[in-house]
Each structure stands twice: as C-alpha cells, then as structure tokens.
Amino acid sequence: MTEIRISGFGGQGVIRMGYIIGKAASIYDNKFATLTQSFGPEARGSSCSAQVVVSEDQVLYPYITIPNILVAMSQEGYSRFESNLSEDGMLLIDEDLVKPNPPRGRIKIYSIPSARISEELGNKIIANIVMFGFFTVITGLITEEAARKAVANSVPQRLMDLNLKAFERGYKYGKEFLAKQEKSVNV
Amino acid sequence: MKANPKNVLTGAHYLDGDHACSEGALAAGCNFVAGYPITPSTEVVERMTERFPTIGGIFIQMEDELASMAAVVGAAWSGAKAMTVTSGPGFSLMMENIGLAAMMEAPCVIINVQRGGPSTGLPTLPGQADMMQVRWGSHGDYEIIALSPNSPQECFEFTIKAFNLSEKYRVPTFVMSDECVGHMTEKVIIPPADQIELEPRRYTTLSPAEYLPFKPEKDLVPQIIKAGDGYKIHITGLTHDEKGYPVMNWQTQEKLVRRLVDKIRLNQDKIVEFEEENTGDAEVILLSYGISSRVAIPAIQKARKEGIKVGVLRLIVVWPFPEKRIYQLAKKIKAFVVPEMNYGQIVLEVERSAKGQAEVYLVPHGGGWVHDPEDIYKAIKEAVR
Question: pLDDT digit string (tens) for A61-101?
Fold first, then answer.
C-alpha cells in the first residue's frame, strides 16, 4: 500500500493530479486507488492538498496516515506537510517554488522545475501534468501506459496534445534525473 | 424492466460518491430533481445538471428545502422519477414534506450526504448522526426505507436500489451517504443497461370510473396514476379514505396509517438486506453500516489474527431494521460491537433487537473524521474479555 499527498496552491491542479494518479492506478493498472481531498476555506487560493491511497488490495481506511510520497508544488504545501512524510519517504518538489530543508531520516528529494517547463510549453496550468510525468518515472507506482491514458482521458479534448506534451517533458526530465543520480552513485 | 441505454454511462469510471449517486439515479431513470444545493451533497446536483440536458430531465433549483421536497412529491404524482439531495440543516428543513410524501405515497428518493451536526455543524466533514432522524424526523406515524453505502460503487448501486424500492412500496426512500463516501473518488463499474433491473411504476389498469387512488393491492400498496391522464383524483396530507378525500375520524385514521406502517412492516423480510460474514461460530459480531462498516475491517482483521472469532453483520438497508436476524444471532454470541459516527443511534435498535441475549458495545464517534480502526479493535477486545 502506498500513501501519497500532493500539496500546493488552489489552481495549480493539485486535486487534478491526485485524480489522474488514482485513475491511472485503478482504471488502467487495475489496482485499487482512493482519492480524498481537503475541502473548506483552505482550498480557495491558499494551500490545498489531495490524498491518494494506492493498493494491490481493496482500500479499507480511505485516508492517508503516514504518506510514503509527498509532492510539494508550493513552499506552504511543503512546510505544512513535510513533517508528516514517512522517514524513508520520497519528496517530489518544484525546485523553483520550494526550498526544502536538509532531508530528514532517509527521505530522498527529487526536484523538477515543473512550472518553468510548463511556461516554456506556453501554459502554466499544465505544471501539474509535467509533475505527473516526473512522478510516473520517479515513483514507478504506475505504468507509463496507464499514466498516458489517464492524462488523455482526464483533460478537455482541445488541450489533450498540450497535456500529453507536458507529460512527455516531465517524464523525460525524470529519466534524465535518475540517470544523473545513477551516474553520481557509480562515480 | 431494463434501464434505458441512453441514461446509462456503461464502463469503468473514476468517480466520487456524489457523482456515482447521480449516475445511479440516471440509470434508474430519474428525470426530475428539485434541490437547494448544500455541501457536501452539491456534486450530486452539479452532475445532474450537466447530464440532464443531453438525455432529458429537469433540475429546478428551488428557494429552499421545504419547496424542494414539495416539488419532488408533485413531480412524482405527475409521472416523474423524482429525487432530491441534501445534507445537514437541509435535511431538517425537508422533514415536513417527507411526511407529505409518506402520506401521499409518492415514490421518490432522497439522498442525504451526512455531515457533522447539529445545526450547521461541520459542512465539509462526515457524520452519521441523521440515522434516527431519517426514521422518525417527520411528525406522525409512518415508515420509510433507508440504505447506507460505504463506497462510490455502492453509491451507484444503492441509488438504483432506492429508486426500485420507492416504486415497489410507494414510499420515500433514502440513500444515507456521508461526506467521506460522497467526496471519496474510486473506481466505479457501471454495467450495461440490460443488466440493470428497474422496478416499473405501479400504474393502474383500471378505468377512471373504477379507480380509487388509495385502495391497496394485496401487498398493501395502492396503484398509482399520473396527473393529466384523465383520472380525476384528490390527494391530500389530511387523513383520507380510499378515494383520497379527507375523513376526520379514528376509523379512517386507523385504516390509513396502519396500512402506511404495515406496508413496510409486513413486507420487511423482502426489504431488509444485509451482508453477513463468519457469524456461524462468532463470539462477537461487528454490526455497522456505511463508512463505519468499512473502516472497521482492519480492526476485524487484526482481532481475527489474534484468534478472536469476529463475525460481521453489515446493514445495507438500515430501515426497516433486521430485528429478527439480530435476535437469532444474539442468542448465539457474547456481544455485538457497533461503531457509528454518532453518540448512539442504531446501537439502540441493536439493543432492542437483542432483547438482552447479548451485550451491546457502542463505539461512538462525534463525526468530523472516521473512526480510528484501533478504537474499534479495542472495543472488540473488550467485548470478548
């Protein structure tokens, strides 16, 4: 069972990213995935978060307890939720928007300029999809095929190409990130 | 009768519980919704308003919940498959006209996505504290049917069941969801339309000259007509005879209200539905419903690993209550453990049904979050000590 939290500002597509992760895992990878989200005044403009539990078996307790993966797309999202991340968890951040402290325990940090890449592609609303491409590679939680299908079937038709491009950029960045890491380990 | 393929979104979807209720309603042929949207039930009507224009159906945003429920009763009597959706204070405001629906025997569905109360309480967080209100909330004697889902898949399925039961018994039927289930997104499999069985409306075969709107059939449920078909009828919230005319005496009251109660009580074996697991040799039975029945499973698994014989009785239909089965089981076990997100509602019914034959332990939770499975586990341990 893997518990994931995605945090950021309302409007960054935080909930949508949680939805796409859950859809990829449950509909296209045939696992079980339960998405919950924070509702209330904190979801408007300021920080918001989505929680996904992905499992081989039916998810019984619907909420996350100690997440294994934290995706932080804002500084506030990072500072609010970092302390709850598992000591051997993965922290995925937008490197331009989040300045993390030195990692706690065996936490590994994976960073990507997702907002900057989305701006290069001409639309910053797809930063979440860039991050999702990166997430797919880094976590290995969902298959590439399921991830692509979930993106294609979760965005409006007219924005599909743009979103798939965003996914590719994030995915490629993730591959390069891992290759670089491996290289540094080998040296 | 099978569902109409144009209404059914066959396939695998990633849906939240509220949207799954909408799809269940549409699959069941719902074509009228009146409501006053309120958190956490708003998504149900949002989806209906998106889907109705493409398949046909009317949504009216009413001035309040009193009017919403009244419109549903009117729509049902004009031939619509009608529904309303609410939560928290909205449910309280519907009470008077829920009684009207019961008295007029209007087939209709009410979805209550329960939130923490009382009053405005916790608009964005779950509760299960309307379980007695749904049974007893309107004045006077009547019976209703209520179901309680614990996943988006069940939101879809139970909404269809609710429509079918409301048609069969001509009674307001409730889907008692909660914020956790309503706002939880999971895979929902919607079957092909020809695999969805629908209960047809009990339209009369009699001519206008012979028809009496409140003359019951053998199962105590009368046949219905729809306004505009040439039947001159009178329906009222006042105590009425088989013609539907007000008659103010105890004999008419006895005949009518006893039938309203008995049409559910005497048919309860056909209506009651629950899941039972490992009750054969159980020493303790975990009895629950809705989301609490789901978060209890890790606790049950943990207790079983320690060798405690835990059975499960999960209510699908909460009202009418499966009192006979509970009494049978009570004679064989040590205790029932009843987790629910309130300070003791359905547990009272369990105590009543057990008639002192087994201990009954409540695991209360005030709402705002679901139970910690650990608390349920501790109660199971306590119950077998």
Answer: 999 999 999 999 999 999 999 999 999 999 999 999 999 99
CB contact under 8 A, B370 and A63: yes
Q: Minimal Cα distance from B297: which residue of A?
A: A60
Residue A165 sits in a domain of what CATH number?
Answer: 3.40.920.10
Q: Where are the beta strands (DSSP E) in B307-366?
A: 310-315, 317-319, 335-340, 359-364
Nearest to B184 among A26, A34, A40 (CB): A34
Find the domain containing A43 and state its range.
2-186
Distance CA B346, CA B288 (A): 9
Tokens at B9, concatenated:
């979104």
Neighbour tally for A155: CB within 10 Å? 21
Domains of chain B in sequence order: 5-195 (3.40.50.970), 275-384 (3.40.50.920)
pLDDT tens-digit profile of B13-36? 999 999 999 999 999 999 999 999
- Chain A nearest-CA residue for B185: A35
What's the total number of domains in chain A?
Answer: 1
A66 interface with B at CB cutoff 8 Å: no
Taking CA B101 as the corner, what is the angle to CA B99 and CA B103, rounded to the nearest 5 degrees?
70
pTM: 0.97
Q: State the complex-level ipTM.
A: 0.95
Contacts of A33 in chain B (CB under 8 A): 14, 186-187
| Rounded CA separation B385/B377 (Å) | 13
Q: What's the gap in Å between the CA of A187 and the closest CA on chain B?
A: 44
A82 HSE (CA, 13 A, CB side): 22
B-chain residues near A27 (CB < 8 A): 12-14, 187
Taking the C-alpha atoms of residue B301 and residue B380, their distance in angstroms, rounded to an integer, is: 11
Nearest to B186 among A33, A37, A63 (CB): A33
